[in-house]
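Hey, can you fold this?
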Amino acid sequence: MAMIRQILKMIPGIEQANLMRHRRRLKRQLADNPDRLRFELDRLEQRYYLAYFMDMRCNYNCSYCIQSGVQRGGYTRTPPDEVIAYLLEHAQAKERCLGILGGEATVHPEFKRTVERLHQSFSITVTTNLGSKLYEDMDAFLEWAVAHPIEWHASFHAEFMDPNLFVSRVRRMQEAGLLCIPEGVDTAGVSEAQREILLGSGIGFHFQVYLGFDADGTLVPKEYPDPAFSYDRYVAMCGGNPRPCTCRTISRAHHARHLIAPDGNIYNCHQLLYRQLNPIGHIRSGWPKRLLDWQECNLLGDCNPCDMGDMEFREVPSPGAS
């Protein structure tokens, strides 16, 4: 099917060697649910980055984690049924691409039921480290996951995960027909032995560029594989020295950050969600009307790299500046 080929080409991270497997998965998925094609096509022209941070707790504690300021157990967790009802009632056609993440979303006791309730209505991507209790019985997990097909982004964390176990779990997911994209941040903590196992595994593993400070306190990288990347802009946003600004999260692709915290508050950037500052709404108040508006913020310079490509900002002059 030409449309399936188009979908596969547009989804980043899929290696050519895995295209046949994913094509078979999509054919089965579309045969079982023709409406799924609509959701996959919406994904190609995504307008909103809609994400549910289901649980900020994590079974790992990586030294390089970019979720600075997070109080892992400090969020009041709104019942997922409320978030599910909010999404089903308010999300429009262009808002049907949903990320479920954390922390580690799969540690939440309602994770599986949340996916079961939403996977028919949303094109779901789950980001996971494959290290939680959900994966201890892989046979049971795969039986459930095949019945509720979504996209899995498997993230390898060198400080905690055995690379052989990671490869084994990814391979079993792919062999079962699941769309599983394995990746990991390329930090100094990745050993040569781990690198050899991951890159030689045949599962399509790729490394993400590390964004942050190196051992000398320099913000890296100075070059990034994105034609719109500017190191000066990167430093202004993430290089430290927090200062006032007005900002909005709308990118060249017209995405807007619509981030739902575990407590039901809604934010338009990651750092504010992690620090629980300046929400622009709450799920009980309906779909926020200020997603694309300029917002006041005091954290320019301490932005999260996740928002680097999807944010405009205006610095607020200091008092007395000419």
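Oh, and this one too while you're at it.
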Amino acid sequence: MGVGLGIDIFDTQPDFRTLIANHRAGFDFLEVYSRGDADHTDDPFAQIPDDVPRTYHHEGLDPVGPGLCPDAPIAGCVKNQQLLAPPWTVEELAVRHIDGKYTDFFFPAILNTECAAATIRNLNALHSILPAPLLPENAPYEFVVGDMHLADFLTTVAHGADCGLVLDLGHYWSYQLCVGKGEQPDHGLERLDLSRVLEVHLAGARLEPYAGGQIYRDLHGAGPIPEASLFLLRELLPKLPNLKAITIEVENATERAAIAQAAQVREVVRATLPAWLEAASVA
């Protein structure tokens, strides 16, 4: 699908309608995020022209929880998939609801075999209900619980649920910062089944110091893409045989900044693996 922009349909900056109207040549597709909302999506989704390819980023299925989430978020995901007709849907490997209450931050997967098994059960159940494939994405980490390496967890989940993966490069680096490998963003990646990666995410971020080191904070479009994420992109591009899409999450960016980040990433791809861009443009 090429290089696309991850947008929030409820954001006024950037406004996806302005991006489409004035900057269509600057991106190949949109990854549409609706904050897990399915009650107010009919009109904005209808404003995305049919000739703009799209994927869908859901929220609220809580796939790493101990059991399957309630019916309502599943029904909402089904509705939004039917409205958008995306080739796949992205969902973070995290929990956003505890006892029915929405949290304002991610609880990422506990990295142990019990959580991996529960995640596989949940994903398999969701795959039997949803009309389009669900691709789990590694969530951001501010602290790590569990003795499993993140790459091993992702590989176990992908094989057990027989699904592809979305690899968020900044989120992967956030894990490295937590385990003392921040200076080696690609540490342990040889343990990940890279053939399962269908989509890559990048986003703006900042590092916040604390007594034990640094914490990665997602800024999406409100900050620059870290060099560590671009380093991972350069390292990984030749090793991802089934990569279909590269998404830059640009929520809170100006339209100009969003298009500039897309151009920045496209230049990295062009310098690293130009054949991938050519194949995407042909497709």
